[in-house]
Amino acid sequence: MSGTHLDLTLTLTGGTAADARAVVHTLEPVFGSADTLPGDDGATVYTVSFDGDASAGDGQTSAGSTLSSSVTVTLQGSPEAVRRADETLSAAFNVKEGGTAPGDQEQERELHLEP
After folding, report:
1. Is 22 helix (H, G, I), strand (E, B) or coil?
2. Residue 42 CB partners (closer than 8 Å, separation 6+)
3. DSSP string of 24-70?
4. Residue 72 in this model has a pLDDT that exceeds 80
């Protein structure tokens, strides 16, 4: 779906700032650059937004990203954005599906990424 505008918001808990950045970098080929990257400020929750065009990246993700510990990711956005983020993260990490809150215009899905 080249040229599709995909807005996505992530909330990441658990893990380190480096783990959160690894998750964000995994999604950048599909969603473009994030608004900000998680910093090493000792936060326990990171929120990152993508407000980009799906054609911004080449769509190729690198499988085999590693995490130092488990990270819980909550995806919020259009059904297409949430689906693509779920597929991208599932290809790169060991993912256990959490709950889903469906909707016509916006969905929310929780994923548990394991090292």
Report:
1. helix
2. none
3. HHHHHHHH--BS----SS--SEEEEEEEEEGGGS-----S----SS-
4. yes
